[in-house]
């Protein structure tokens, strides 16, 4: 029997995921394919869009092979943010893509532009946004920028390859810092003031709008029939909110290599400028705030290497369930990659404190998870100082058994597990479904289909982490003040 499905494609920072979803929002197939990232020098992070296309073909092929007979009705997309692709009029990439972690961007904008960006978007023109990256290209390679027809986000490049459509959507356009987030259109005067030609800004479509049809030559490469409608798609964090089905009274935490704290907000909060970032959502009038915490799964990967591999980490994880809150005095400050929200201190450094001979791998793991979770609380408190919102935990790190209840106890908030760890991919598929008028033809209807229904994990009574939170705040301040260690003088 052939099943009617939609295909969601998520271009992550290290792999492409493909998901097939039926009209009841049940996952029919899932596959992923990695692709490389290049670091030509310190601080430089580049990706070749041709590698994205190759990985997409592998992921889609694997997904179709695993699913059995299906009929794909539409394709939706999501992709990583703040990673501009300069393309010519045919959609061909003119240069490598500089990803969000690339640090070469130019941030010396005119004061008038900086002030206007902050007022309109609630964000600072920091190097991890798209506009400063484009200004670097303009300063260093003006001839190449002059050849560009427009600038696309990663998921937009894939859609251009699939359909020939050169466009973007408000969720990715917001990271350009030149979008009016309420009216959801470009601000050409601000682009000129910032020093960028507005002609580089692509036309905008809404995320669930059909942007074009799958071209015959591209369809053959993906083993799909031509003419399949392709929805515009959305930035990965916006798609993840849809894939989680997050309610207005909830905060999402997704644990990948880094961790993100995301929540719907009523409006931009000027008092949080530089502490959180603000972004347009998949639906008009539904912005969200984002806390970026650079130390999530990366810390787990580091500890796994230290302990000797995945089996050693798994053993420690089982034993850590029996270690009491506070890890019997062991405390981890989670700044192996510097501190993110809300203070954004790249000089902050990580540390294990309070170690004793009685501590083993299980204590280290529990202390690590407690430290990462305590760091997130800074963003929780900014988004909801009254502790009224519950948390929805997703991403690969949520599979660690001790994490959900530990987070509920430490944050003093109920925690619900997201229905899937692949929320961005699911969100991309849901956008394709809405484009076909599935789920009632609305984004709200799509979200209702995937909202978590499992009972929430409630904070333990009494408060087992009161003393720990105080100790962590002291250690946190010390780590942020210390900065990187200096080389020791050698005395002969």
Structural summary, described in words:
The structure is a single chain. With 492 residues, the protein is α/β, with parallel strands linked by helices. It has 2 domains: 3-239, ATPase, nucleotide binding domain (Nucleotidyltransferase, domain 5); 245-422 and 452-482, ATPase, nucleotide binding domain (Nucleotidyltransferase, domain 5, 2-Layer Sandwich). The protein is globular, with a radius of gyration of 23 Å. It has a 6-stranded mixed sheet, sandwiched between helices. The protein has a 5-stranded mixed sheet with strand order 3-2-1-5-15, sandwiched between helices. It starts with a strand and ends in a 10-residue tail after the last helix. Helix content is 36%, strand content 20%.
CATH class of the largest domain: Alpha Beta
Number of helices: 16
Helix content: 25-40%
What share of residues are in beta strands? 15-25%
Strand order of the largest sheet: 18-19-17-16-22-23
Which stretches are poorly predicted, pLDDT < 50 over at least 5 residues?
Answer: 485-492
Shape: globular
Structural class by helix and strand composition: alpha/beta
CATH superfamily of the largest domain: ATPase, nucleotide binding domain
Gross CATH architecture of the largest domain: 2-Layer Sandwich
* N/C terminus separation: 80 Å
Number of spatially distinct domains: 2
Give the integer mean of the pLDDT values. 93
> From the alpha-carbon coordinates, what is the Rg to the nearest angstrom?
23 Å
CATH topology of the largest domain: Nucleotidyltransferase, domain 5
The description of the largest β-sheet is: 6 strands, mixed
How many DSSP E strands? 23
